[in-house]
Write a structure and sequence with these properties.
Elements lengths: L1 H31 L6 H24 L3 H33 L3 H22 L12 H25 L1 H11 L1 H6 L4 H26 L7 H5 L3 H9 L4 H20 L6 H15 L14
Helix pairs in contact: 1-5, 1-8, 1-10, 1-11, 2-3, 2-4, 2-8, 3-4, 3-8, 5-6, 5-8, 6-8, 10-11, 10-12, 11-12
């Protein structure tokens, strides 16, 4: 029973990280209707910035303190946001202007992901260790509380604020939103800002949990789990993304505990396929049919 509760705690903690990152995928897809596979590299960039600022500069000045961690997190968010905006402006916006197909946008996102991954590999391909600021139990509490606060905050933002309403309008119909005076480009940029912020927060919490990480932390170590979580829960649905993240975190942790670690990917992606077969829109997603 003790093993079960330990697995439950670790699964929820890891699931909260997947959930935060899945929210980023859902935000972008919900507004722009494209899968931003470069999101995995935003995750890696956030981790690298937090590590280098924290390990190489701030800990030598301030020591291993909460202030050091928070400053590193803020820097990580800022850099992730800048990279996301630049990516959106120079890689995705031209495609929207040309009226390119979604498959073109998808292929472009994959290309951007490989470019960023190659840059990170060239800069640093060694194993790194993030300073440990808290005990494991404290990190667990932080991850759950942060995920809950951000989910509630994002939900209220989307449903209650003018910018949130504008986001929903762009999501429903870009042309109609433009006619109503909404700056679609600004709203799309804002969506990428929110998504990259969530990526930075998620990866910093992740680094507080793990012993080591590499340049492939976003693309390989964490990989497609956040995307799968978003799809399982219903991509475009904020609560669905969080639900999917927790489901994957729990599945992977219990698979490891009960001797099925080698089968964890089979279990996760098997669940992914089964859910899509019976509920293509995801557990909490809306079944919207599109004409191709």
């Amino acid at each position: 029973m003790e093993l079960f509760f330990e697995g439950l705690k670790n699964g929820l903690a890891m699931g909260s990280v997947f959930a935060l990152m899945a929210l980023g995928y859902s935000m972008v897809y919900g507004i722009v209707k494209m899968i931003n596979f470069a999101h995995s590299e935003f995750i890696t960039i956030g981790g690298f910035v937090a590590y280098f600022l924290c390990e190489k500069i701030l800990t030598k000045i301030m020591g291993i303190t909460v202030g050091t961690l928070l400053l590193s997190l803020v820097a990580s968010i800022v850099v992730c946001v800048v990279v996301a905006i630049v990516t959106e402006k120079f890689a995705y916006k031209p495609l929207r202007k040309k009226g390119s197909s979604r498959i073109t946008a998808l292929i472009t996102a994959i290309g951007v992901s490989y470019i960023l991954n190659g840059i990170l590999n060239a800069i640093c391909n060694t194993q790194l260790q993030f300073p440990k600021f808290f005990e494991k139990d404290t990190v667990f509490v932080i991850s759950i509380v942060v995920t809950a606060i951000l989910l509630i905050g994002l939900t209220l933002f989307v449903k209650k604020t003018k910018l949130g309403i504008a986001m929903r309008a762009v999501s429903e119909n870009e042309d109609a939103a433009k006619l109503m005076g909404i700056n679609n480009n600004f709203i799309i940029s804002l969506t990428f800002i929110v998504g990259s912020t969530l990526a930075a927060i998620g990866v910093v919490i992740y680094l507080l949990r793990v012993k080591f990480f590499t340049f492939a932390v976003g693309s390989v170590t964490i990989g497609l789990y956040p995307f799968v979580a978003a799809v399982i829960g219903g991509i475009g649905s904020l609560p669905g993304s969080v639900l999917g993240g927790f489901m994957i975190g729990l599945l992977k942790e219990f698979a490891a505990i009960y001797g099925l670690a080698a089968w964890s990917d089979v279990i996760v992606y098997g669940l992914f396929v089964v859910i899509l077969l019976f509920k293509p829109a995801g557990l909490l997603g809306k079944d919207i049919r599109e004409k191709v």
